[in-house]
Amino acid sequence: xxxxxxxxxxxxxxxxxxxxxxxxxxxxxxxxxxxxxxxxxxxxxxxxxxxxxxxxxxxxxxxxxxxxxxxxxxxxxxxxxxxxxxxxxxxxxxxxxxxxxxxxxxxxxxxxxxxxxxxxxxxxxxxxxxxxxxxxxxxxxxxxxxxxxxxxxxxxxxxxxxxxxxxxxxxxxxxxxxxxxxxxxxxxxxxxxxxxxxxxxxxxxxxxxxxxxxxxxxxxxxxxxxxxxxxxxxxxxxxxxxxxxxxxxxxxxxxxxxxxxxxxxxxxxxxxxxxxxxxxxxxxxxxxxxxxxxxxxxxxxxxxxxxxxxxxxxxxxxxxxxxxxxxxxxxxxxxxxxxxxxxxxxxxxxxxxxxx
Length: 356
Fold this sequence. Notes:
Blueprint: H1 2-21, H2 24-30, H3 34-40, H4 49-52, E1 60-65, E2 80-81, H5 82-94, E3 97-103, E4 111-112, H6 120-126, H7 129-136, E5 139-140, E6 151-154, H8 160-163, H9 168-179, E7 183-187, E8 210-211, H10 216-222, H11 226-229, H12 234-240, E9 244-245, E10 255-258, E11 261-264, H13 270-280, H14 292-306, H15 308-317, H16 324-336, H17 340-353
């Protein structure tokens, strides 16, 4: 994601940093070899014990909803974020739920695949015939009977900002599920689905509820003219609809729960959102090995809340492997945003991780 937007600045920064730490070998040492990524792309469902061992009993169905909007004008792609669908899909299925994939119009919805963000579970989803058949033939929302589902999960992606807010079928489904005490969940731009849902009392569903979503800060950093690209900024509209918007650190995991309403701020919040859905449905989530990306996000959260020394100590104490590219990306974001000292500290953290 970040590489596509900041490629020219990143190249300059890499040159400067490489020179400072001893030529290009330092930067190369922070990034996995090409063979690592090639092997990752071949991941199958059968390779992941979490998905195949100790299957849970059948517990009902969860509806995952994605956008049909594939572009936002000339040279601006949209679609849904595949990582936000795949990771939640696996959590739900591993915990005994059948997942149906739907979209406003049905059919094969456009997805966004970014190699920078893709992990083993995401490629396993792409390589799984059953999940791909559901995705290629998503159910039109008009054909959905809400009471067939224990929960609904709205997948993020920029396209949701265009076809979710005014969709009457979304409003019908969410209202029916919410008023029957079933679980409503969404992540990143997915909460756009909730903006115009009114309950029987005439109030917006969001009125007085804790909620989060992709923040103005995150949006405007990536798309400086987001006010022109989108019909609104999501954070602003969630507040306008009466939501108590709660934000976390930029591009780090942050989730809010207000009873049966569960929302995540960004793509790095998907795992937690999905597992909270399982909990809210009355089950203990199946034990899941955390990913290297999650450990990196956790380390960044330690840095944000406790500082550099605490993060270094966390590295020394942890037996886990961290995804160094995630640390490096946050360092570059900080430098580009003129938080130079923060960026340098994060580069030092990345350097501390290179031999793990």
